[in-house]
Amino acid sequence: MLPIQNLLKCFLALALMFSYVHSSVSQSAPAPSTEKLNASQSLEAAKDEGKIEIKMGGKLFKVAYADDALERQLGLMYRRKMCDDCGMLFKFDSVRIGSIWMKNTYIPLDLAYITEAGEIVDIKALTPHDLTPVKSSSPVLYALEMNQAWFAQQGIKVGDKIERLP
Q1: What SS3 state is found at 100?
Q2: DSSP string covering 27-87, please?
Q3: What span, in angstroms and rounded, lies between the C-alpha atoms of 72 and 53?
């Protein structure tokens, strides 16, 4: 049996996945008050949990953040759609050649591999359900998945820097 901590992480990952799919625009959670949160406030807080703000091309974007093995394994699996500026940042355990596949992923994505210093070294198109590992061309600490063609639409290219990485 899994330890209770892994069960809680799995539950949180699933809750985030379902709330993330249904969000059409990334919004900030309301500021907590001393009063008990109502159901809609609780949902907003759950949507925002597990997200971070990163800066690309002079703009801030709020993306889901997968910083542990369970979240990295789940990634964007099973999602049928994603809002225009939504995505997921993966942080690997250490700097290494990155490798990502599209098992159980329905959305066509672009993948940016990013160094520890925040430099984009690769942007690769990913095909839904393709089990072929897509590797980085050099050692990286991060990977960022966004909707396919998103990087080109934003004018973000290999060599650009991403700021505010954890």
Answers
A1: strand
A2: -PPPPP-SSPP-HHHHHHHHHHTTEEEEEETTEEEEEEEE-SHHHHHHTTTT-----TT-E
A3: 18
What distance in Å separates the CA atoms of residue 128 and residue 113, rounded to the nearest whole number? 18
CA dist 37 → 23, 131, 146 (Å) = 20, 42, 32
CA dist 27 and 149 (Å) reads 23
For residues 6 and 137, the model is more confident at 137
Q: Residue 1 to residues 4, 14, 69, 100, 131: CA-CA distances in angstroms?
A: 9, 19, 17, 27, 28
Neighbours of 147 (CB within 10 A): 18
Each residue of 39-89: pLDDT tens digit? 333 334 434 668 899 999 899 999 988 877 666 666 666 577 888 888 999
| Cβ proximity of 87 and 150 under 8 Å | yes
Of the candidates 26, 22, 70, 72, the residue with the CA atom closest to the CA atom of residue 49: 26
